[in-house]
Write a structure and sequence with these properties.
The protein is an alpha+beta fold. The protein has a domain of 79 residues. It has a four-stranded antiparallel sheet, with no helix packed on it. It is globular and about 45 Å long. The relative contact order is 0.21.
Amino acid sequence: MIDHRPVMEDFGTISYREIRRDIGRRAIKHTTSLTLAIPDGRSIDVGLTRVRGNIGNGDLIYLVCPCCGGRCWTLRLTPDEHGLMCKKCVQREYRVPYRSQTPLGYRRVAAIDSHN
């Protein structure tokens, strides 16, 4: 019997690094929010927050989760009305584990079946 419950890795991601690479470091430096187009066609406003770095290399820039307002480096794509959530919100809302937290044969059996 194969268990088809979702795991955290099944949710797509949008990371700050990808956004910075696409927009450019200088352009994002003075930005406080972004409008991201997600694959289902919607546009979602995502805030950016800055925290002073402790090494003296300037500020650290984080994405702001549209659901809880927390700081994060990566947002997960979700199928519900939120569209984007941080990992804490995804775990709270969907109760999904990471793949490494599932029973041993859980995903391996599915991977073996998909090769046949």
